[in-house]
Specification:
The complex is a heterodimer of chains A (384) and B (630). Chain A is mainly alpha-helical. Chain A is built from 15 helices and three strands. In chain A, a hairpin with a 2-residue loop joins strand 1 and strand 2. In chain B, strands 2, 3, 4, 5 and 10 form a five-stranded mixed beta sheet that branches. In chain B, a hairpin with a 2-residue loop joins strand 14 and strand 15. Classes of the chains: A mainly alpha (384), B alpha+beta (630).
Chain lengths: 384, 630
């Protein structure tokens, strides 16, 4: 009985409510902010494609709408279903990644896509919510005294290492690191002891240089080196960074005005409707537009952290925090790359960059967050 | 009840604490991004704005229209004509080869042209139009236009191209234009030269008057994208291109064409040689012709290998400007210089006769007169009229080579004239110093004898022979030739030869053409046209030997020129001026392997001088001259 009362403490219970009640009880602040970001994306893609509606802005609009529906559906599904499906979804994600290995479509020198005829899917994007689900489930099931134990640690590292190695082979350094960092954060949140963290840090200091030397393709090494020393190759790898910084810097405080960006018109920044879309925001809307965008992102992240605090099941908390970490890393890597703070690794700006799978994965992820929050009163099984 | 595990509470606190730490980390991350954005967009904004403008703007060059080249009456000799051409824009087609094949079916492209197109395509961005073919005639152009839909990437254009309408007779003078080469760019830093479609003068007047003809470029500010394609043009600051100025030549286009026609033969095509007509007062060249000619338009549109081979293998060497760069032995036309040297030296009495037996013995060498049986007794005037070699052998020995060389130089031989077109050679007026320097051996008496009849080492061009004759006819000024009409009138040095001596020589030259028995005698030399009937002229024939004549051949009879292969025939040479009593024009004519000077060269000179006089009388000079000097 104590457990039950604990289970229903806090916000309104949502287990037995009708569909309408559940819809009403969803935290609507999060979908609103997500929708705003989607519309920012539509606007900037419209500008990046020289104001031709059907060159991307329209598709993005439709995708944001459709994925919004998916998000709500995911949110309404009981958290226990997601709990049960955590490993199967992870397994499907792995299978898709293996599929890329054999049937992948090559774009710009890396195999990231699966072509299903009607649509192309990027399995590494699917893997991002999947890994959050799997790790949340793993640590939910793992008794806390085993978290810092070597066997417990190895289990989570295997969960991480399988998709990471497959994605690295594509090759996609950005997503690999993003996945790895998400995993590390979840392990940290799960309560691993500082002793192990200290150990791991020491190991990384030795391991990262070795990884750089043997784990990276020459072009990836080149990108990292060019980032560290841009004069290495002014026209090649650092061209992106230079032109992107020119676009942002020349925007100044107020920007050049919507559709007025000369760097954009001159097509100086490649991929500016996908990975480099922030350059269009910065050039046309200046510091004001850039800061506003960053603020909306921070609001989304803040809301997510707040939602996680309201949950009490380990699975729900870790799921929300894992997904939020992934989302934050997306933003940091993308903006850092565009501003010349981190190497060019090809990570999109979530919800704003053009690209279907990313929107689906990100909004599906928000659906999971909403679901975890909506069903915060539901008790999940926990082994001893 | 097992559901609540002992560590749940601890878990919750731990994860909340750790979430808080994560949140602080997140704020740190976003703080870093915001700071970076502030740095880029506020602190360094000015710097990046400049970089953005550098990206954005280019200054495109506007090309000036080239000046035209006209004759003295304003007839266009080189002009800018509408030029139909095809270009291909590589980015608009995936099948460049197929497209070019189809073009070839209508307007053939040589393998050389195909190579050039492919090379240009590789060296330029894909949106830059590459010239496929220009100077296409209207019919072919129309046919191509009809099929443009089947020729992806091909664009037809009507632009301006250089055209030389006067049938090739000015080719040597005008030269031609072409794309600037590496050497041109080295000496001339005008950025126009680096434009792929810009053409500069390569030879002739086109090259010599390049500064006047070229004009200067204008500038247009354009906004370009990352691949260099123009996004839009900015009206300001734009400067127009300044077109090049026209260049007016002293030449008379119709006279030049008339002269060219005189070189035609019945069975051997055009004769090879050069002719030069000069105004004896001003030094203006009315005709400067080298034969045979070539079509300079071929050089503009790109010479095919066949055309090139045909020109290079032609024994008559059409590209070679024989009028200024062809050095020939002047033969008997040199005798005026010897005569004047003798008169100026006061060592020879012109009335004193020399007996010509047909040959002169010098040591163990025999020097022959062209007339084997000899001329008999000859004074100086008769010697020139009959072109008696023996007389000149004798007086040359008296006066010596140095005096002859001095007078020859004063008459304008041995000097390269800068007539605005490159390539004029100096010829040779030999003397002891020259021979020592050039051949390293001393001057011998026999050399003087050879020189006295314009053979041996002596070399002159048709231009030099015309100048020599002009100076003899002018009496006072050492006339210098020029080809381009300029604002300033030429000032000449004094000739510094006794006027009486010159009059004596002119009289002897008159005898050559106007006294029965003279080597070039003819009644009414210029015809019976009222404007020229009764006009007299004076001149001198020359027959330049191009082969040694053996003793055996002399004994058995010298072979007639007509029976010899073309290459071995004598050069036919003539100099003259007209009218005799108040000279206007002088002429120098050489017909390579044309036989005796009294025939081919004399006939051409007579006809051309007559035409020059006829045109001089009939053309209203007052209007033409003002036009020329504007």
């Amino acid at each position: 009985m104590v457990a039950q009362s604990r289970g229903f403490r806090g916000a309104a219970p949502a287990t037995g409510g009708s569909l309408a009640t559940k819809l009403f009880e969803i935290n609507w602040l999060l979908p609103t902010l997500v929708g705003v970001l989607g519309l920012v994306g539509v606007t900037m893609i419209f500008s990046a494609t020289d104001g031709v509606w059907r060159y991307g802005a329209f598709q993005h609009f439709v995708r944001v709408g459709a994925c919004g529906l998916v998000m709500l559906v995911v949110a309404l599904v009981d958290i226990r279903v997601w709990y049960r499906l955590a490993y199967p979804i992870y397994a499907v994600g792995l299978l898709l990644l293996v599929g890329v290995e054999f049937f992948g479509v090559e774009v710009n020198g890396s195999m990231r896509w699966l072509d299903f005829g009607v649509a192309r899917l990027q399995p590494s994007e699917v893997m991002k919510p999947a890994i959050a689900l799997a790790l949340a489930r793993y640590y939910h099931d793992l008794p806390s005294h085993r978290v810092s134990h070597i066997v417990g640690l190895i289990g989570s590292l295997i969960l991480l290492a399988l998709p990471m190695s497959l994605i690295l082979r594509q090759p996609d350094l950005g997503t690999t690191l993003l996945l790895g960092t998400t995993g590390v954060v979840v392990i940290y949140l799960a309560g691993i002891s500082w002793r192990v963290i200290g150990f791991a840090s020491a190991f990384s200091i030795v391991g990262i240089p070795l990884f750089f030397k043997y784990g990276l393709k020459p072009y990836q090494q080149e990108r990292v080196l060019t980032f560290l020393d841009p004069s290495r190759d002014p026209s090649g790898a650092s061209y992106h960074i230079t032109q992107s910084k020119i676009a942002l810097g020349s925007g100044g405080v107020n920007g050049k005005g919507f559709m007025q960006g000369t760097q954009r018109q001159g097509e100086y920044v490649p991929e500016n409707q996908t990975d480099f879309i922030f350059t269009v925001i910065g050039e046309e809307f200046g510091l004001v537009g850039g800061m506003l965008t960053i603020t909306i992102y921070m609001a989304v992240i803040g809301v997510c952290l707040w939602l996680s605090l309201q949950c009490k099941e380990m699975f729900a908390k870790l799921l929300i925090l894992g997904l939020t970490t992934t989302f934050t890393l997306y933003i940091f890597i993308n903006l850092g790359m565009v501003m010349g703070l981190v190497p060019v690794v090809g990570v999109p700006l979530p919800l704003i960059s053009y690209g279907g799978t990313v929107i689906l994965a990100v909004m599906g992820g928000f659906g999971l967050i909403l679901s975890a929050h909506l069903h915060r009163g539901v008790e999940l099984p926990r082994s001893a | 009840m097992p559901p609540l595990l002992p560590q749940s509470k601890a878990d919750k606190n731990l994860i909340t604490r750790r979430t808080a730490i994560l949140g602080v980390g997140g704020i740190g991350v976003f703080g870093t991004l915001a700071a970076r954005l502030y740095q880029l967009q506020v602190l360094q904004a000015e710097n990046y704005r400049t970089l953005s403008d550098n990206n954005r703007f280019n200054f495109n060059m506007l090309m000036p229209e080239r000046g035209e080249i006209r004759d003295r009456f304003g007839v266009a000799l080189a002009r800018n004509e509408q030029n139909f051409r095809l270009v291909i824009i590589p980015e608009r087609t995936d099948e460049i080869d197929k497209t070019l094949d189809r073009v070839s079916r209508i307007s053939p492209l040589s393998p050389g042209q195909r190579d050039r197109i492919q090379k240009d395509i590789q060296q330029n961005p894909k949106f830059v139009p590459i010239l496929v073919k220009d100077n296409i005639d209207w019919e072919t152009f129309s046919a191509l236009n009809m099929r443009l839909h089947a020729l992806p990437g091909i664009v037809s254009e009507a632009g301006h191209g250089r055209a030389y309408p006067e049938n090739g007779v000015f080719s040597h003078v005008l030269g031609y234009i072409g794309r600037a080469g590496a050497n041109d760019v080295e000496v001339d830093d005008d950025p126009l030269l680096k434009q792929p479609t810009f053409r500069i003068g390569k030879t002739g007047v086109e090259a010599a008057e390049e500064k006047t003809l070229r004009g200067s470029s204008g500038q247009l500010k354009v906004e370009v994208n990352a691949r260099g394609r123009i996004v839009r043009e900015w009206p300001d600051p734009a400067t127009r291109a300044t077109p090049g100025k026209d260049v007016w030549l002293t030449l008379d286009a119709e006279l030049q064409e008339f002269a060219a026609k005189q070189f035609a033969t019945e069975d051997e095509g055009d004769d090879s040689g050069g002719v030069c007509v000069i105004d004896i007062i001003t030094g203006e060249l009315r005709t400067l012709l080298s034969m045979p000619t070539f079509d300079a338009n071929l050089f503009v549109s790109g010479l095919s290998q066949t055309d090139m081979d045909r020109m290079n293998n032609d024994p008559k060497r059409p590209q070679y400007n024989k009028a200024i760069a062809g050095g020939y032995p002047p033969a008997s036309t040199f005798k005026m210089a010897v005569m004047l040297a003798a008169l100026e030296s006061n060592l020879v009495d012109p009335a004193k006769t020399v007996f010509c037996s047909g040959k002169v013995q010098l040591g163990n060498r025999t020097f022959h007169c062209w007339k084997r049986q000899g001329h008999g007794r000859m004074d100086m005037r008769d010697a020139l009229k009959n072109s008696c070699d023996t007389y000149f052998y004798e007086i040359a020995q008296v006066i010596g080579i140095d005096r002859i060389a001095d007078v020859a130089r004063r008459l304008g031989l041995g000097a390269a004239y800068d007539i605005s077109i490159g390539g004029a050679i100096s010829g040779i007026v030999p003397d002891g110093v020259w021979k020592q320097e050039r051949l390293g051996t001393g001057w011998r008496a026999g050399d003087t004898l050879n020189a006295s009849i314009g053979q041996g080492f002596v070399l002159a061009t048709p231009l030099q022979l015309a100048v020599m004759t002009a100076r003899i006819a002018n009496t006072i000024d050492a006339v210098v030739p020029h080809l381009v009409i300029s604002q300033t009138l030429p000032v000449f040095e004094p000739l510094d030869i006794d006027a009486e001596h010159l009059a004596y020589v002119r009289d002897a030259m008159w005898a050559v053409t106007s006294e029965p028995g003279g080597t070039a005698f003819r009644h009414n030399p210029f015809g019976v046209d009222p404007s020229v009937k009764g006009m007299e002229f004076a001149g001198k024939t020359g027959t330049g030997q191009v082969r040694g004549i053996s003793t055996a051949e002399r004994l058995t009879g010298i072979r007639k020129n007509a029976k010899l292969p073309w290459k071995l025939r004598d050069h036919s040479i003539f100099v003259g001026f007209a009218p005799y009593d108040r000279p206007r024009f002088a002429i120098g004519t050489i017909v390579e392997h044309g036989g005796s000077g009294s025939k081919r060269a004399a006939d051409i000179s007579r006809a051309v001088l007559g035409e020059a006089l006829r045109r001089d009388g009939s053309v209203d000079m007052s209007t033409a001259e003002t036009g020329a000097l504007e």
